[in-house]
């Protein structure tokens, strides 16, 4: 039985494993983190689901929606209310604007994005090894993947981790071409520039008839914010992105500034915070190398050379950024992960 080894237990890698579940391949996954999901991360804290990574998708994300429906994972429409607050301070004022009726809906998962990951991992049936950081890959008659503790051998290898991490941290024997290695380095990694935050309260004090939490600001610590409460009322939460100028602060310092800013918007309201969390994805070593250069968002995403297989169709790259459609998004991860599985199945015919 031919062996397929997948590096990365995020959405792309798990999509490949799932698509191969009924094949004659023996599939194993190596994951550097102690958890599933990669850039998908729903943090359970104080009976609240705080989204630290990928959250939203739309009807145009057809590969993702097909997978969700196949796995019977419930999702719902994101409600942004009728009004948004724009905070232009210190160069302007706080203003309210009408939110235009959305032509295209935005969706999110009923039970957190990690519900997709956990369901997919179980359905794939693949054996997953956690805390396995790949140091080197040697390609000869077989493929040998070395970590700090073990050596894994396979017939085929799928690298589903970000391309910048591949270039920075994995030694190849024989070496990749300099041109291809430069392409890996110069391919932007989705989420790598983001500080995602979420917070849960006892009550949804921010809600009114028109405004339910949608906020934008070019200068304050909160750059984007959206309501993340449940219709049932068992979770009152906010989620969004923080200004990258505050990346030098630690999470507690950012929490203090975020809560103070919310107090300035709602000075008369009682606020009982249950949980706060944020993730500065720039500091996640398995998402982006520490000294990676800044790139234009989506730079080289979808470049066709990233979909070339190497070493006589034995090595494939499948991170979302390599996808031909919706590269950098969850849909791109599913699309490319499934596409690589199809390529492997065609090789075995």
From TrEMBL:
It comes from Psychroflexus gondwanensis ACAM 44. InterPro entries: Amino_oxidase, FAD/NAD-bd_sf, Flavin_MAO. Residues 11-88, 110-344 form the Amine oxidase domain. GO terms for molecular function: oxidoreductase activity. Transmembrane segments: none annotated. This is Flavin containing amine oxidase/oxidoreductase. Belongs to the flavin monoamine oxidase family. It comes from the Bacteria. It holds the Pfam family Amino_oxidase.
């Amino acid at each position: 039985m031919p062996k397929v080894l997948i590096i990365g237990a995020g959405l792309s890698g798990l999509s490949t494993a799932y698509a191969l579940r009924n094949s004659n391949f023996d599939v194993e996954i190596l994951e550097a983190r102690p958890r599933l999901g990669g850039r998908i991360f729903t943090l359970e804290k104080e009976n609240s689901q705080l989204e630290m990574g990928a959250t939203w998708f739309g009807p145009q994300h057809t590969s993702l929606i097909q997978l969700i429906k196949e796995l019977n994972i419930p999702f719902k429409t994101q409600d942004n209310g009728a009004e948004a607050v724009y905070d232009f301070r210190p160069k302007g004022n706080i203003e309210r604007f009408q939110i235009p009726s959305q032509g295209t809906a935005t969706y999110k998962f009923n039970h957190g994005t990690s519900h997709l990951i956990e369901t997919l991992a179980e359905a794939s049936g693949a054996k997953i090894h956690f805390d396995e950081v790949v140091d080197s890959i040697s390609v000869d008659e077989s493929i040998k993947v070395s970590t700090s503790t073990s050596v894994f051998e396979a017939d085929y290898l799928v690298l589903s981790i970000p391309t910048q991490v591949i270039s920075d941290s994995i030694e190849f024997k024989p070496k990749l071409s300099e041109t291809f290695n430069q392409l890996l380095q110069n391919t932007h990694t989705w989420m790598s520039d983001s500080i995602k935050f979420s917070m849960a309260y006892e009550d949804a004090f921010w809600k009114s008839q028109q405004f339910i939490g949608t906020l934008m600001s070019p200068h304050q610590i909160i750059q984007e914010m959206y309501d993340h409460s449940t219709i049932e009322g068992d979770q009152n939460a906010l989620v969004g992105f923080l200004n990258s100028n505050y990346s030098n602060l630690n999470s507690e310092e950012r929490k203090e500034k975020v809560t103070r800013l919310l107090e300035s918007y709602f000075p008369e309201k009682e606020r009982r915070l249950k949980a706060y969390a944020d993730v500065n994805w720039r500091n996640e070593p398995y998402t982006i190398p520490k000294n990676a250069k800044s790139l234009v968002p989506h730079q080289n995403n979808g470049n066709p050379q990233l979909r070339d297989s190497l070493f006589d169709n034995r090595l494939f790259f499948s991170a979302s950024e390599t996808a031909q459609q919706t590269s950098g998004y969850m849909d791109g991860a599913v699309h490319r992960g499934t596409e690589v599985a199809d390529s492997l199945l065609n090789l075995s015919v």
